[in-house]
Specification:
Order of helices and strands: HEHHHHEHEHEHEEHEH
CATH class: Alpha Beta
CATH topology: Rossmann fold
Structural class: alpha/beta
Number of helices: 10
Strand content: 15-25%
CATH architecture: 3-Layer(aba) Sandwich
Largest sheet: 7 strands, parallel
Shape: globular
CATH superfamily: Isochorismatase-like
Helix content: 25-40%
Distance between the termini: 26 Å
Number of strands: 7
Length: 208
């Protein structure tokens, strides 16, 4: 059985994909849903944007696959558990309605022609998206996961990826959430059970 144990082995460009989670206007722009309607502080979210764009430039340079994941909600994907959660948090609106400005990627994250776009309706990028099959068809072994929010969609995706037998790598300076305590707990949990935790400098170095 092959075991990839070093960072260089795990993120060799030919079997690695960069996954960018939910860098969308509703989550990352001051005029978007979470800031304008929920009062969420976006300081940490905005701080990861330059690092993500630098990583994407490097990935495209070395022909590493880029996967841009976007939340896209409609009334058709509402379920009892989702409606129950919305009721519990007194929410009468959802973020990222399909086709809206809020669902669009922020201007700094510009898709390239070879990028793969994944639209999701759940926290994890693997649920009802066909992502697992796409990755395995391309021979991908390792996912470098970036984006927001660390404790919700990032962690959900990393957990599922690990359990589907992908090596998961999380650069701690390229993921963010609104609350430091949740960020810290999530990173500790991921490090203990699901992912290799590193930083963007080490990832860039390993990509060559």
């Amino acid at each position: 059985m092959e075991v990839l144990s070093t960072l260089d082995q795990k993120i060799a460009p030919e079997h690695t994909a960069i996954v960018v989670i939910d860098m969308q206007n509703d989550f990352c722009d001051p005029k978007g849903f979470v800031a304008a309607k929920r009062g969420t502080d976006l300081t940490d979210t905005r701080a990861i944007i330059p690092g993500i764009t630098k990583l994407l430039d490097k990935a495209r340079e070395v022909k590493t696959k880029v996967i841009l994941v976007q939340m896209s909600t409609t009334d058709d994907d509402l379920t009892g558990p989702i409606m129950d959660r919305l009721s519990r948090i007194n929410a009468n609106e959802r973020s990222c309605p399909q086709g809206s400005w809020g669902a669009q990627l922020i201007p700094e994250i510009k898709p390239a022609p070879d990028d793969i776009i994944i639209y999701k309706t759940r926290y994890s990028a693997f649920i009802k998206t066909g992502l697992e099959e796409k990755l395995k068809e391309m021979g991908i072994k390792t996912l470098i996961v970036t984006g927001v929010a660390t404790n919700v969609c990032v962690e959900s995706t990393v957990r599922d990826g690990y359990m589907l037998d992908f090596y998961m790598v999380v650069p701690q300076d390229l993921v963010a959430c609104a609350h430091k305590e949740l960020q810290d707990v999530s990173m500790k949990n991921l490090a203990a059970y699901f992912a290799t935790i590193t930083d963007s400098d080490e990832v860039l170095k390993a990509l060559g």
